[in-house]
């Protein structure tokens, strides 16, 4: 799985108060942030996720790169809705946060939520996209809310100029009865991390789904994304446990090889211990018997001489 450092940039401008997404634009973003964090850390436990806002007086880093979900939740709850967005400045600050990541082997990615009008010009966005691409940073946009032609055109031009080997995606999600996070599961932004797309099909960078009505584990991730992620995590933990048990069993089998089997009985025919110790005792007894006989013979000769 891909090892990534991901900064999530949320839109906390006044536009996020709108209720055209269930339950509101801001609440929909919060739910989607939870899903993205779970998907990234579940795809690779060493991946880290950070959080920042780009509304109000200026962008603010809420949580630096972490693997602690509690910190991300706390950052979301501390965020206040106010002001307008600062898209270009927010992306630049997110790039700086990624530059100072502890694990330099992590790939860099920024995921930006935008639901308000984009004030930056197309020319400035193209320049920013080329700079980010030069720094090997992939940027995914999740556009919802104000989907005016001018907004979407700017995002499409930005996406065309930043596309690279690691993939930068643009997901435009119109209002509808479904949750934002449920629709997000079907996009390449999350399907590239192993979350199966709707209908069991495959998308670019996505993973093929298994049986069970065309869905992996027989669960439609668009209707219950948390259950789908929990099932996948459980499967990987079980696989890791089996591999660990297999490694434990290998040394035990090898350690018994090379130990010769002993076919020699523990006791000999006289009921005494067999082996080198028993042989030595037999020799000692034999020598003592011989010395005793020699002594008797010597005593007999001495008696004969006295009698004579």
- In what order do the strands lie side by side in the largest sheet? 3-2-1-4-5-6
Largest sheet descriptor: 6 strands, mixed
**Assembly status:** single chain
What is the straight-line distance between the termini? 111 Å
By helix and strand content, what is the structural category?
alpha/beta
Low-confidence stretches: 196-214, 301-308
Helix count?
Answer: 9
Mean pLDDT: 79
Count every beta strand, where a strand is a DSSP E run of 2 or more residues: 6
Strand content: 5-15%
Helix content: 40-55%
State Rg.
38 Å
Globular, elongated, flat, extended or rod-shaped: what is the shape?
elongated
Order of helices and strands: EHEEHHEHEHEHHHH
């Amino acid at each position: 799985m891909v090892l990534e450092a991901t900064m999530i940039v949320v839109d906390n401008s006044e536009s996020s108060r709108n209720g055209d997404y269930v339950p509101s634009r801001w609440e929909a973003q919060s739910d989607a942030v939870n899903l993205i964090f779970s998907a990234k850390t579940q795809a690779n436990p060493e991946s880290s996720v950070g959080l920042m806002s780009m509304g109000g007086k200026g962008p603010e880093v809420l949580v630096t790169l972490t693997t602690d979900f509690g910190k991300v939740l706390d950052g979301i709850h501390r965020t206040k809705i106010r002001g307008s967005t600062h898209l270009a400045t927010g992306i630049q600050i997110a790039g700086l946060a990624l530059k100072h990541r502890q694990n330099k082997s992590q790939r860099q990615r920024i995921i930006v939520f935008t639901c308000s009008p984009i004030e930056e010009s197309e020319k400035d966005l193209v320049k920013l996209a080329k700079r980010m691409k030069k720094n090997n940073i992939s940027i995914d946009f999740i556009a919802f809310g104000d989907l005016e032609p001018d907004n979407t055109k700017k995002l499409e031009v930005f996406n065309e100029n930043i596309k690279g080997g690691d993939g930068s995606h643009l997901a435009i999600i119109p209002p509808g009865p479904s949750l934002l996070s449920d629709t997000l599961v079907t996009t390449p932004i999350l399907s590239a991390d192993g979350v199966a797309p709707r209908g069991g099909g495959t998308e670019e960078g996505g993973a093929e789904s298994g049986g069970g009505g065309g869905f992996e584990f027989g669960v439609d991730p668009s209707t219950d994304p948390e259950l789908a992620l929990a099932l996948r995590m459980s499967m990987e933990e079980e696989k890791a446990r089996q591999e660990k048990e297999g490694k434990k069993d290998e040394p035990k089998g090898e350690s018994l090889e090379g130990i010769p089997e002993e076919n020699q009985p523990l006791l000999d025919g006289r009921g005494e211990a067999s082996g080198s110790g028993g042989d030595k005792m037999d020799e000692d007894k034999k020598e003592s018997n011989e010395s005793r006989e020699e002594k008797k013979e010597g005593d007999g000769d001495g008696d004969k001489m006295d009698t004579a």
